[in-house]
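Sanity check

After download, print the first record. It should look like this:
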Amino acid sequence: TYGDNGKFTVIDASMLEGDLFLGWADLDDVDPEGHFYGGLTAGVAEEVILGTGDSVIVLQAGLEGDTYEGTQSSSIGLMDTIYNFNANFDALVGGTSDGTPYSTALLELGGNVSTLQQAFAAAAAVYDADEAEVLYFHFGGNTYLYADTVEPDAGRYDAGDFALRIVGEHEIEFETMAVPIDPI
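Expected structure tokens:
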């Protein structure tokens, strides 16, 4: 399904038996290693349905030091959802422009958290990019990623903050990816 700015609202790779790479490379703006950038956009809520092959999903949190600082792959206001993610075979790729992967930390939600808004408020209240650039928490049987990118250290979440839903409960780690450019 087609969305704003040439992006799709549904990327259905559920019948794909081979590998999926969801990202892009700006070969004019990168070093010879050919770093990859996010394949999703915060401008439209996207659903990604993965297949049985290994998948690589490139995410951009929009943190200070990102190649495209302030540009997120997904946001709380237009949150993307990833289905059929398998942490044993699929990878989340993201990090700063120096090649360092995003650091992550699991936020254990208190028993008084009963809505997703309360869960994001709890994440925003403890968010500290110096300790973990991306927090993740489990709520309602799903995994949510969060980074305070609009007003860091404000202690509250905003619709433009980085957020992503992954169906099911997963432990989250980011990887970096660089591949040699093979000129055509």
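If your output differs, re-run the checksum step. Summary of this record's structure: The two ends are 31 Å apart (CA to CA).
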